[in-house]
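Example for tutorial group B:
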């Protein structure tokens, strides 16, 4: 039995977040019989403290997993991994400054998924970006295995740090389900939508997700857009909601966590608009690809790698507006890519192979 400790997430069951969804889907039916997971969770963030979940043991740290406490949260979690495990899987680089000391104390295999150049996100101040950049460098230096979730990130690790990394993306097939027509109809009616006659975006409302560009583009068309996100979490998000809520063709909906509702909305959309410009392989993009609808994505190397260059790409509001007007968009190639690359069975097997080798 290979005992694996997972550090760096808020916790499971997953609610909102790429790493949380990753862990949730590594567990249960996707977990090989010879792997036993322990997941470290935030005792401050999780609504209830389950002792076990999908066969994994859950342990709690009395700190928040995000914000300023994310660094001590990861450090304390790693300290509790020093005994009893064969492999330590760290998701993210928040605790990177502790790794030189951790390296001296730990003799077990250390695998680190460095995420997607977190220091580039606009939400961080100058000091936080500096810390994250150092943490990333230390993570790459001290990891036995560096995991990159996108070919663009893998190339970055090679070019900047001259170190090999393993490419493992995210899965998205957990979003697919059978639904009764009456449920779909009721869901679309609730949000004032018609099948095949609207675009949809699901993401955090942050500058690097180019929310302003997406909203500006659709505000200058008659095309319907439903934009699902956390509209009340920041001044940036609230200012956008105030500015664009007057447009009748734009529906700004608070975050939806119910996968049945999201399935109904995404599977019946005319197109999925993906504005992310930072990070690597984005979970919401991978999920959308499984619905076989046209993907209209911000033009950066990460998104082109994820979609194998077969989506539609924009760099500004004008380009997005012109794409949104088109009636000849084809999304059939997206589902083929998703089925071939982004199923959780594949992702779990790739991680399990790292544990064994």
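The residue assignment follows.
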């Amino acid at each position: 039995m290979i005992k694996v400790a997972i550090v760096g997430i808020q916790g499971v069951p997953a609610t909102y977040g790429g790493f949380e969804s990753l862990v949730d889907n590594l567990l249960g039916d996707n977990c090989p019989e010879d792997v036993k997971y322990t997941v470290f969770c935030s005792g401050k963030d999780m609504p209830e403290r389950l002792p076990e979940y999908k066969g994994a043991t859950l342990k709690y740290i009395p700190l928040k997993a995000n914000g300023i406490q994310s660094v001590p949260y990861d450090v304390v979690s790693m300290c509790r991994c020093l005994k009893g495990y064969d492999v330590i899987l760290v998701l993210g680089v928040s605790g990177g400054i502790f790794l030189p000391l951790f390296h001296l104390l730990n003799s077990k295999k250390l695998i680190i998924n460095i995420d997607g150049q977190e220091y580039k996100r606009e939400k961080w101040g100058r000091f936080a970006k500096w810390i994250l950049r150092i943490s990333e460098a230390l993570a790459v230096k001290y990891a036995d295995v560096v995991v990159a979730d996108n070919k663009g990130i893998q190339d970055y690790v090679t070019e900047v740090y001259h170190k090999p990394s393993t490419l493992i993306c995210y899965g998205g097939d957990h979003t697919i389900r059978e639904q009764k027509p009456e449920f779909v109809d009721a869901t679309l009616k609730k949000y004032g939508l018609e099948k095949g006659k609207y675009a949809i975006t699901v993401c955090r409302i942050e500058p690097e997700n180019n929310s302003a560009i997406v909203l500006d583009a659709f505000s200058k068309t008659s095309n319907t857009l439903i934009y699902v996100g956390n509209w009340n979490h920041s001044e940036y998000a609230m200012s956008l909601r105030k500015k664009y809520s007057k447009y009748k063709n734009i529906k700004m909906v608070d975050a939806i966590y119910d996968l049945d509702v999201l399935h109904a909305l995404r599977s019946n959309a005319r197109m999925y608009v993906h504005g992310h410009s930072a990070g690597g392989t984005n979970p919401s993009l991978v999920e959308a690809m499984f619905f076989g609808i046209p993907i209209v994505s911000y033009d950066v190397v990460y998104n082109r790698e994820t979609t194998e260059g077969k989506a539609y790409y924009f760099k500004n509001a004008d380009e997005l507006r012109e794409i949104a007007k088109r009636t000849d968009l084809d999304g059939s190639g997206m589902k083929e890519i998703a089925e071939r690359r982004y199923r959780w069975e594949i992702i779990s097997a790739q991680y399990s192979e790292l544990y064994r080798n």
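The CA atoms of residues 96 and 135 lie 4 Å apart. Compare this with the pattern of hydrophobic and polar residues in the output above.
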